[in-house]
Design goal:
The strands form two sheets. Strands 1, 2, 3, 4, 5, 6, 7 and 8 form an eight-stranded antiparallel β-sheet that branches. Strands 9-10-11-12 form a four-stranded antiparallel β-sheet, with no helix packed on it. It contains nine helices and twelve strands. The chain is flat.
Length: 422
């Protein structure tokens, strides 16, 4: 033959490979194990199968609704920080462990940990991609979102922590309205992680077990089309559902509570009806008589009215004359006596002459991005928008009222007013 083995020879060789007499045991390969199966995953951090029964469907729905409302408020806050349209879609709630997070998310990424300090007891972790953090922080610092080269440093971590602080603060406000109690958070802590070599217990203890993963699709202008993840401990998700249900039931009880019964009307006293004429309300008797002749009783024709003090059977019928409309004019008051402090409009400015006002002299202004301001140091020269020798602005309580020139009076600076701004 040409040196090639037949199939029978190959089978014979495979059958006789184990000639050492080693007994089958822990060190011997399983005879019936499929050749293509991967070895069992023995790494820690919540690996293995996920028990879906740990979180019921109603608890998932409640967590999703809370996350949806919270992220709606957070998106509005993020828009004000980056000045770009922000869209965060409806969340997807599922159970996960550390292994699934490593496999499903791009690395390295930024973990932002937030703890609830008032109203709720739990921990909340946000995971953002490194590129997304670079874009957001560049926009916050006045850039156009394209300066994403290099690695994330302390400046970017500080900026994204502040962004998450404001976003989750708005989220806590929305959550507070939902559960009818004050909710507050701790300052966020941002960390860059590769996740492969990181121990999840060093980040948060609940990451070593099965936890709740909430995924959002986040879009920021034309710069970011990515996924934002939020992680909850299972016990926190359950307590959150119980808190929301309890608050809903309390509101329902308040809405369905019966209105207090109205006070019963007093029974009419026996005997002759009291005289409720106009005279009993402090008017003169002759005025009372005149008004009684002009005002018909309610429910009776305009041509008829009862006379006071007469029984109903003996009340005569009398013609009601139509009264002319009365001409009513508003009261007019004379101004106070004038003095030297009366303005042309009649206002007396003398009563406010001793009110102190803050006078400010402004040499000029300029606008600088945050990156330039962070580089300020002793000796830094800041160029203003005024030319040397140009008149300075004089402001009173922040309002521009005059222009002037700087003068030196002994050892102090002063301003000589050169123009009054009308």
């Amino acid at each position: 033959m040409d040196g090639m083995l037949s199939q029978d020879e190959i089978n014979a060789l495979l059958a006789g490979m184990d000639t050492s007499g080693t007994p089958a045991g822990d060190d011997a390969p399983a005879a019936d194990a499929p050749a293509g199966d991967p070895p069992a995953d023995t790494s820690g951090g919540g690996s293995g199968e996920i028990d879906e029964s740990l979180l019921s469907s109603s608890e998932r729905d409640t967590v999703g609704e809370v996350a949806n409302i919270s992220m709606g408020s957070s998106a509005t806050t993020l828009y004000s920080l980056v000045n770009q349209k922000v869209n965060i879609t409806t969340p997807e709630v599922e159970l996960a462990n550390w292994s699934t997070v490593i496999n499903d998310y791009e690395r390295p990424c930024v973990f932002v940990q937030i703890k609830y300090t008032v109203g709720l007891d739990g921990t909340n972790i946000l995971i953002l991609k490194e590129h997304d953090v670079m874009v957001i922080t560049d926009l916050m610092m006045g850039g156009d979102g394209t300066n994403t080269e290099g690695e994330i440093g302390e400046l970017q971590l500080s900026a994204i922590s502040e962004a998450m602080n404001q976003m989750m603060g708005a989220s806590a406000t929305s959550l507070s309205t939902m559960i009818s109690r004050k909710v507050d958070i701790s300052p966020p802590q941002a960390t860059v992680l590769d996740m492969i070599d990181d121990d999840p217990s060093d980040i948060a203890e609940f990451l070593t077990q099965t936890f709740v993963k909430i995924s959002f699709k986040m879009q920021i202008g034309d710069l970011i089309d990515s996924t934002l993840m939020q992680l909850y401990p299972i016990d926190f998700a359950k307590s959150l559902k119980d808190t929301v249900i309890a608050a809903t039931n309390e509101k329902s009880d308040d809405d369905s509570s019966p209105m207090p019964a109205a006070a019963p009307e007093p029974a009419p006293a026996s005997g002759p009806a009291p005289d409720m004429g106009i005279a009993n309300m402090g008017m003169q008797p002759d005025m009372s008589a005149q008004m009684n002749q002009q005002m018909p009783m309610q429910g009776m024709p305009m041509q008829q009215m009862p006379m006071q003090g007469m029984p109903m059977q003996q009340m005569p019928m009398m013609q009601m004359p139509m009264q002319p409309m009365m001409n009513i004019q508003p009261a007019q008051f004379q101004n106070f006596a004038g003095g030297s402090s009366i303005l042309p409009g009649g206002e007396n400015i003398g009563i406010i002459k001793d009110v102190p006002l803050e006078v400010t002299v402004e040499l000029g202004r300029t606008a600088k991005p945050i990156s330039d301001i962070l580089d300020f140091a002793p000796g830094t020269i800041i160029e203003l928008d005024k030319v040397a020798g140009e008149p300075v602005d004089v402001l009173v309580n922040g309002k521009f009222v005059a222009k002037g020139e700087v003068v030196v009076i002994e050892e102090s600076f002063g301003v000589r007013v050169t123009e009054i701004i009308q």
